Predict the 3D structure of the following.
Amino acid sequence: MGAGAVGGYFGARLALAGNEVHLIARGEHLRAMREHGLHVQTRDGTLCVCPASATDDPASVGVVELVLFTVKSTSTRPAAEAARPLVGEGTAVLVLQNGVENESVVAEVLGREHVVPGVAYVGAQLSAPGVILHTGRGNVALGEPGGDITDRVRAIRDVLEDAGAKVNLTTDIFSVKWRKLMVNAAFNPVTAINRRTVLQVLEDPELRAIVEASMMEVVAVGRALGHDMDMEAYHRALTKTPEMAHSRTSMLQDVERGRPTEIDAICGAVVRAGRRVGVPTPVNQMLLERVQAIDSAIPSH
């Protein structure tokens, strides 16, 4: 549901592993997939799902076993409403979105019993309609909201691993989501505001300092909420790697293409949670306002 860069990448992998996969998309991307299939460009060559089962009408698909919910956070509620025809009694909805607030929205619309929170770690971008450029990884963390390792999450793990993903089942998925938010709240807005890659940001002392300060605010808020903010993730995010030279965050891609960003679901979520627990978040507030200013300048269509 939302077969863009992330959803399209995992959808293609699942289809090529022999699963029946339906790609829900719209616009030029949908037209290209219908006419030419879905192409995923990797370092090892191009993967092709040809033909691709692609539609903008979930009702034409009907009830499925698993929904990968990968729309932008700005579209969470309308996409969840549109996904109703996909969800039957035993359907699992794996939410693989940026931010920490989407699961509650999806649960309100589709039912809490269907929702499986997850985190995707994948470098992918939509380089052209119907074409996804994969630049790194393809890992997923997921777990039940209550922490149990159930047959349901084991089954999701198995199908994703059969498709080539590395999957971590966790008993504390919301701490995992807050650790990813820590990275997103820093690198997404800083790369987007400055039009830099992740590596360029880390190599600039002033920008790196902003990144570090943003992450430490998220650590403080997460800990106040009771999450395990393992500092290994903090240090790993600041360790330069060659692939960072090509790492263009999703928010940078949105800004470059003149599309609305997910800043409210990322830095906005940190600021709101900080207020609830009494933890100041001035850096995240500043980044939120700076990116909101960029968003407000996008021409309305």
Remarks:
- The chain has a mean pLDDT of 95.
- The chain has twelve helices and nine strands.
- The CA atoms of residues 40 and 47 lie 5 Å apart.
